[in-house]
């Protein structure tokens, strides 16, 4: 590597941290042969469920040079979303809540019903994944990426590249693994040994050669906490393989049709996403709260607990989730989820 390549690499990593990313690593842009084989096997098993898009643009998905012509480097970045606190009240009667391995354990956002709603003491305290507490991460992180790229160009000169935040056929976890940002755990999420797994993944694919990082070893060991805790048994007994069609996140977000009755009583009150396999992961004791204003739970959402969440109207949905990733699910599917997890239905 030349001294210029070293300088560009150092400047990129310096700017990434300056712009709020909690981690950054770089891998050589090339075809992912081993990962391509695993993806083919996963698709052949039908584990993608209704996510037919996972089979689309296969060549681009496994080779970034087909996605960004001339690509030489894939930059993987981590952006923290672990909340300082969960402002919604906990349900004292909830018997299925998983606690985090954290000295100041925080529970998932529990959308408790008001006393004047039609819900009884047997009704659910609804939960949404922590990543959806604030504004849509796609927009927030993309803005940060564009700021980073613009400043990098002013420092090292012009180059061609594209930014990605869960928005194109990019194998994010695999690239993050290759770039030394963690290992893919038994729950199939990327785990960083000092930061846990509560972070978004983003990429910059560029046409300049940089210094490449190296993968780190797997530290899951004999732990099976995520496998044991998954109420729908979406994770294989050995780990490292997820049946997406059984995952609560898939069932509440991606699935457009009726939720199969086989999952009745197994959703543990999650109505958008699920954090169970992260809550029980010992490595998340290293998670530190983010300082991103956009990711703080909005008052519109926290106040909803007092308006009878189960009776939410389309109008209120649009107001509350105007800037949220929850909007992706849509009003009708959120209502479907609420009804499905509510006791007595």
Automatic annotation (TrEMBL):
| Active-site residues, record numbering mapped to chain | 166
Q: Record-annotated residues binding cob(II)alamin?
A: 61, 166, 187, 190, 201, 249, 274-275
Q: Could you list this entry's UniProt keywords, alphabetically sorted.
A: 4Fe-4S, Cobalamin, Cobalt, Cytoplasm, Iron, Iron-sulfur, Metal-binding, Oxidoreductase, Queuosine biosynthesis, tRNA processing
Q: Where are the transmembrane segments?
A: none
Q: How is the cofactor bound?
A: Binds 2 [4Fe-4S] clusters per monomer.
Which cofactors go with this protein? [4Fe-4S] cluster; cob(II)alamin
**Positions of [4Fe-4S] cluster 2 binding:** 230, 247, 274, 277
Q: Where in the cell is it found?
A: Cytoplasm
Q: Is Zinc a UniProt keyword of this protein?
A: no
Q: Name one GO cellular component term.
A: cytoplasm
Task: Give every 4Fe-4S ferredoxin-type domain span.
Answer: 208-240
Q: Is Repeat tagged as a keyword?
A: no
Q: Where is the composition biased (Low complexity)?
A: 96-108
Residue segments, region Disordered: 89-122
Say where the protein is mainly found: cytoplasm
UniProt biased composition (Polar residues):
109-122
Q: Which PANTHER family match?
A: EPOXYQUEUOSINE REDUCTASE
| UniProt family annotation | Belongs to the QueG family.
Sum up the protein's function in the record's words. Catalyzes the conversion of epoxyqueuosine (oQ) to queuosine (Q), which is a hypermodified base found in the wobble positions of tRNA(Asp), tRNA(Asn), tRNA(His) and tRNA(Tyr).
- Record text on subunit structure and interactions: Monomer.
- Protein name as annotated: Epoxyqueuosine reductase
Could you tell me which species this protein originates from? Candidatus Opimibacter skivensis
The uppermost taxa in this organism's lineage are:
Bacteria, Pseudomonadati, Bacteroidota, Saprospiria, Saprospirales
């Amino acid at each position: 590597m030349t001294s210029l390549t070293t300088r560009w690499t150092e400047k990129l990593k310096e700017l990434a941290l300056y712009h709020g990313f909690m981690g950054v690593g770089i891998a050589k842009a090339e075809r992912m042969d081993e990962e391509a084989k695993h993806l083919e096997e996963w698709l052949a098993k039908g584990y993608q469920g209704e996510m037919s898009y996972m089979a689309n643009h296969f060549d681009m998905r496994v080779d970034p040079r087909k996605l960004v012509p001339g690509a030489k480097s894939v930059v993987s970045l981590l952006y923290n979303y672990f909340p300082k606190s969960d402002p919604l009240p906990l349900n004292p009667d909830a018997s299925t809540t998983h606690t985090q391995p954290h000295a100041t354990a925080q529970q998932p956002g529990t959308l408790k019903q008001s006393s004047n709603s039609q819900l009884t003491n047997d009704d659910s305290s609804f939960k949404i994944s922590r990543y959806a507490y604030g504004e849509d991460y796609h927009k927030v992180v993309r803005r940060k990426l564009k700021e980073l790229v613009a400043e990098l160009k002013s420092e090292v000169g012009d180059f061609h590249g594209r930014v990605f935040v869960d928005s194109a056929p990019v194998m994010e976890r695999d690239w993050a693994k290759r770039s030394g940002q963690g290992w893919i755990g038994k729950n199939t999420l990327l785990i960083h040994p000092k930061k846990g797994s509560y972070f978004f993944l983003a990429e910059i694919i560029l046409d300049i050669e940089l210094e490449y990082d190296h993968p780190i070893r797997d530290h899951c060991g004999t732990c099976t906490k995520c496998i044991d805790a998954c109420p729908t048994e979406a994770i294989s007994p050995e780990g490292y393989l997820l049946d997406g069609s059984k995952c609560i996140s898939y069932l509440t977000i991606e699935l457009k049709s009726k939720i199969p009755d086989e999952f009745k009583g197994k959703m543990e009150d999650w109505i958008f996403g699920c954090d169970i396999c992260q809550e029980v992961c010992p490595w998340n004791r290293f998670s530190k709260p983010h300082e991103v204003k956009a990711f703080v739970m909005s008052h519109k959402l926290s106040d909803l607990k007092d308006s009878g969440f189960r009776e939410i109207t389309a109008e209120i949905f649009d107001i509350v989730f105007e800037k949220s990733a929850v909007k992706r699910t849509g009003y009708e599917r959120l209502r479907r989820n609420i009804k499905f997890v509510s006791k007595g239905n």
